[in-house]
Amino acid sequence: LCQSCRMLSPTRRPRWVIWCLGAYALAAAVVLLSPISPSAVIDALMAWIHENPALLFVRQGWVEFGANIVLFIPVGLLVALLFRRLWVGIACAVAISVMVELVQILLPARMATPRDVLANGLGALIGGLIAFGIERAVRRRQARTEAKAVAAVS
């Protein structure tokens, strides 16, 4: 089989997914659990957005919601690739999100909200759907390769 097909073979767990998940987890822990609130970054982004009169309708809550979605796309993608199940990626992301929000209750500079859990779950869903698309494309490629090999033998 080709290298890209072996990457997602059903019999082995791709080592690169585990490494990426570990690196992501470390980076996310720093961002999510830091006592320094990311509000300064959001405020700077909002100032930049509002320099454009056509974007005056954009509100800070929308930007934060979108950022939470983007933050959890890798979780859904990597966990779904690791376990080859979309629902596992989403469930893990929601569980992680709930735990993060519970920890943020203890941090005075941070604010925990159920809306963040919703946004994180949506991000995981998007990531899981991307993983589903990747898995499907790899399977199709494998099927075409196998069909060509059988046709060449015949």
Task: Tell me what you see in this structure.
With 154 residues, the protein is an all-alpha fold. Helix 4 packs across helix 5. Helices cover 78% and strands 0% of the residues. The longest helix is centred in the last third of the chain and has 40 residues, at 114-153. The protein is elongated.
List the SSEs and their pairings.
Blueprint (H helix, E strand, L loop, with lengths): L2 H5 L7 H19 L5 H11 L10 H24 L2 H21 L7 H40 L1
Short description:
78% of the residues lie in helices and 0% in strands. By secondary structure, the chain is mainly alpha-helical.
Please trace the helix and strand order, writing H or E for each element.
Answer: HHHHHH
Task: Bin the strand percentage.
Answer: under 5%
What's the mean pLDDT score? 81
The number of helical elements comes to: 6
User: Measured on Cα atoms, how large is the radius of gyration?
Assistant: 20 Å
Helix content: over 70%
Quick one: biggest sheet? Answer: none
Structural class of the secondary structure composition? Answer: mainly alpha
Alpha carbon gap, first and last residue: 19 Å
General shape: elongated
Uncertain stretches? 1-8
What is the tally of beta strands? Answer: 0
Keywords:
154 residues, mainly alpha, 6 helices, disordered N terminus
